[in-house]
Amino acid sequence: MNMPNSRIVVTLLLAMLLGACTEAQDLRTTDAERAKPIKRYDISQSLAANGTVVVAGTQSGAVVVSADQGKTWSREVLGPVSMIGLAACPDGSFVGIDFNHKVWSADARGTGWKSIALEKPRIPLTIICDAKAQWHIGGSRAIIAKSADRGASWQVTDMGEDAQITALDMVDAQVGIALGEFGLVAATEDGGATWKKGARIGGEFYPYSTVFMNRKEGYASGIAGTILRTQDGGNTWNKIENAAQAPLYRLFLHEGKPYGVGGGGIVARLEGNAFQPMPYPDVAPVFLGAGAALPGQAAIAIGGPGGLVRVISTQVN
C-alpha cells in the first residue's frame, strides 16, 4: 500500500529538518574545535617557563602560551614551523629552535615571535640560554653556535665529526657540557668561546638530554632508559638506576632536583641514587617529549602528542 501524499510530504519535511539540525550541530562542533587554542593534532615538542608564562612549541607550526599555570592557553600560529627546543633567558625572554633551520625569539610574555635563519648547525637539535642571556645551539655535524647579541652574529665551533650534538647544558656563564652521538663529550670553560672534546662515553652512548646541578654533578639520559651520572664535570660517567624503566627524553631541574619525562607518560625524578617514577593523576600512556619547571611553583609542565600539554603538581601525598 502506498503512503498518502500528505504523509510523504510530512516525512520528507521531518527528514530535512533533522538533517539541517545535524548539519548545524556538526558546524557548531567544528567551530568549537577550531576555537580551541590546543588542537588534537598538536604534538608538544618543547616547553619553557619564566615564572610568568609557560610556552609550548609544537610540531604543527604554533606556540601556545599560558599565563595562569596551565589553566588557560592562547595560541599563535607561526607558519611552517617545528619548534623542537625552547629555553627561557634570565631576562624572561624566550628563544627556540625550528627544525627548519631557524631560531625564534619572543618577549617575556611569550609574544612578539620573530625568526632568523640559522646557517650552522644546519639542523639545530638542542638549545640553552646561559646566565648572560647568550644563546648556545648544538646540532648536526658536531657544531655548536653561540650568539651574544640575540642572533645578530654567531660564533661557530666545528668539532669536525659526523655526529649530532643532541644534549647541551650551560652550568653557569662560563662552564658548559655538550653530548653527542657515539659517546661524544665536549666542554667549555669560557662561556662557549671554545669547546674541547673530552673522553668519550663508552658503548657509543646516544644522549637524549643532559642536566647539571653544578660544575661537577650532572646526568644524561639515553636509549633504552639508560641514565648516566658524572661527578667530575663530565670526565667520567657511570650508570645509575632508572626505576621508571622508560626512556627519559627531557631532563631538567626543578627546585634543585633533576626531573625527567619520557615514554609511557612517565615523569621521574632523582631520589637518592635512582630516578623514581612520580605518580600524578590522569596519566596518558603516550611519550612525553617535553617538560619544564615552573619557577616558584610546586609544579612542572609536560607535553606530548594528541594536544597534550598540562601542568602537574610535584607534591605527592
Short description:
With 317 residues, the chain is mainly beta. The protein is built from one helix and 27 strands. Strand 14 and strand 15 form a beta hairpin.
List keywords for this structure.
317 residues; mainly beta; Methylamine Dehydrogenase, Chain H; 2 domains; eight-stranded mixed sheet; four-stranded antiparallel sheet; 1 helix; 42% strand; globular; PSII_CF48-like_dom; hydrolase; signal; photosynthesis
Kindly describe this structure.
It holds the Pfam family PSII_BNR. Keywords: Hydrolase, Photosynthesis, Photosystem II, Signal. GO terms for molecular function: hydrolase activity. This is Glycosyl hydrolase. By secondary structure, the chain is mainly beta. The protein folds into 2 domains: 1-35; 39-313, Methylamine Dehydrogenase, Chain H. It has one helix at 5-35; strands spanning 44-49, 54-58, 62-66, 74-77, 83-88, 94-98, 102-106, 114-117, 124-129, 135-139, 143-147, 155-158, 165-170, 176-180, 185-188, 196-197, 207-212, 218-222, 227-230, 238-242, 248-254, 257-262, 267-271, 274-277, 290-293, 299-303, 309-313. The radius of gyration is 23 Å and the shape is globular.
How far the N terminus sits from the C terminus, by CA atoms, comes to: 72 Å
Look at the structure and give the CATH class of the largest domain: Mainly Beta
Number of strands: 27
Q: Report strand %.
A: 35-45%
Q: Given the C-alpha coordinates, what overall shape results? A: globular
CATH architecture of the largest domain: 7 Propeller
| Total helical segments | 1
Helix and strand sequence: HEEEEEEEEEEEEEEEEEEEEEEEEEEE
Q: How many structural domains in the coordinates? A: 2
Main β-sheet: number of strands, strand sense, barrel status?
A: 8 strands, mixed
Helix/sheet category: mainly beta
Radius of gyration: 23 Å
Taking pLDDT < 50 over at least 5 consecutive residues as the criterion, the unreliable ranges are: none
CATH superfamily of the largest domain: YVTN repeat-like/Quinoprotein amine dehydrogenase
User: What do we call the CATH topology of the largest domain?
Assistant: Methylamine Dehydrogenase, Chain H
Q: What's the overall average pLDDT, rounded? A: 92
